[in-house]
Amino acid sequence: MNSALTSYVVDPKSVVRVKKIHLIEVPRHLNKDFGERATAEMLVEHVKRGNQKAFDLLVIKYQSSIARVVSKYIRDRSIILDVVQETFIKAYRGLGSFRSDSAFYTWIHRIAINTAINQIKNTHRKHNHLSINDMEHMDLCEHQASNEDPIASVHSNGLKKHLNRILSELPIELKTALLLKEVEGFKYEEIAVIVSSPTGTVKSRISRARDRVAAELSALE
Fold it and tell me: How far apart are CA 200 and CA 183, in angstroms?
């Protein structure tokens, strides 16, 4: 895929506030270059020095999690794969401006979400529609139910269908914040980095999304 960077809405220079360290297991035949374990940020520095194998390790490490994030916005498997590929292309081309004191994990998730949203806009979709299978893969019901977390109180397939509809009708900024918090497990500060909004705004969006989900679910009782 030869996607132009003109559609690249992420400003990597702004992603400097949150650090999330992930150790990556290095295959034995590459231990000489990178050691037995390496952080993503260390591998990024190797890529900047021209070592393509380092970027291959980053792709192997993060491609599944990026695909999972993208699947929250897009249903078509072939398009998901295209968006994942485009995400890593953008990441590779943007590594020159990536700062080693920031978190690669958060940075690339931000690229993935923006790329997925761009894909939706480019196909003239106002909202995506998550399938029931997508909802089941989210493991929403693994969370303990509470009044503050209405999305976690969903246990039946019938309610999953309703939740599917509710999420599809949420404004994209509310759904993004909610999914990053409840499904991906990001902290408020990390979400703020990903969506380029103040932490207070993120908290407000998540609260509003929870309220709307709770109200819709209560109406079903």
Answer: 20
